[in-house]
Amino acid sequence: MAQKSAIPGRDACLSAMDDSITTGMETAVSLPGQQMIRTANQVNKGTQEPLVNYRPHFFLRNGNVQTILSRHIRPDAHLVTRGEQMLLLDAGPDHTGFDPGRSVRLLGFYTPGRLGPDAGEPRGLAMLLHGWEGDSHSAYNLSMGSALVRAGYDVLRLNMRDHGPTHHLNRGLFYATLVQEIHAAAQQAGLLAGRRPFFLIGASLGANFVVRMALRNARDPIPNLGRAVAVNPVLNPQRTCTLLDQHAFLRPYFRNCWLKSLQKKQHLFPDLYDFSALESIPTIREMSDWLIKQSDRFINVDEYLNAYSVRPSDIANLSVPLSILTAANDPIIPPGDIAALPSHPLLRVNVFQYGGHVGYNDLFPLHSRLPELVVPLLEQDNCTD
Questions:
Q1: Whole-prediction pTM value?
Q2: Domain boundaries in the chain?
Q3: Which end of the chain is more exposed for a tag (fewer CB within 10 A), N or C?
Q4: CATH for 26-260+310-383?
Q5: Measuring CA to CA, which residue among 237, 240, 207, 233 is closest to residue 129?
């Protein structure tokens, strides 16, 4: 689901993206075609990760409603934009073939934490990563970033290639397989943390990147990385793409957002791109397949989608604490994808009964409770330092 953007004059779109499943005081949830899973309205067994008992108002328990409302931005969510500073990060060598010999450039927005005069230095640096067709100013990034700033954390909201106001920075197109450049940007950001802990927090496709970066950390360390948090991560892109194309309003929404993004790229680089054929292609899978076949990067869309999937066996490579939060009623991330993950001492998985896709809203007033679910994970790490 795409996010309402706070960047004037532009419509941004949202991403869209174990100690096995948590145990303790559990609520069993069974969905058609899925195995029985356990939801996390409790504290994880074997850890001190605090969890909020998230049970929204009755009117907000539908996954589609939660997903739609994820675009809502409360006025107090703009705190993170006050005093923000633009940072252009060197994201390493280009892997698209369009800018050989030139570093990838990614744009981020940095905001220092709000601390009292006697509070000492900031508690850490958190890098927020949006989902597909979202950006640094997506609603969940603003609410999460503002909560972190209030809690005393510095925040960097990074834009992936061709997201937000960045289409002009690099000639090559965005591919979800380009984890190397996001990883390189995170390494640069991690150095900014100095002696303080560095945290990665991503949503949807951004959460997919966060999981893959956590898995890469053993062989290519990110400085000061203390924890990675993945909210509604896309682990099986094949399945998510199918569900997205089957969805009555998410498919046209994402398709239109993506088409506008590609048309912007074509306008900036008319000598490189002509996407006019995509205007008559109705589904995201078919659009993806057309694009893949214009390049020599992958044989077809299936190979491309499989290239950025996270397989259960990959979890063995985990070397940094990873927390996954998701909802059993997410319309495009089946809970079975999360339940398939194996146990690992550094992995905690929290499956909430409600929340939709990066929603986690409640009423009176309408507000996102996602920060309440994420910030305590970082607080715990600071308490144990």
A1: 0.87
A2: 26-260+310-383
A3: C
A4: 3.40.50.1820
A5: 207
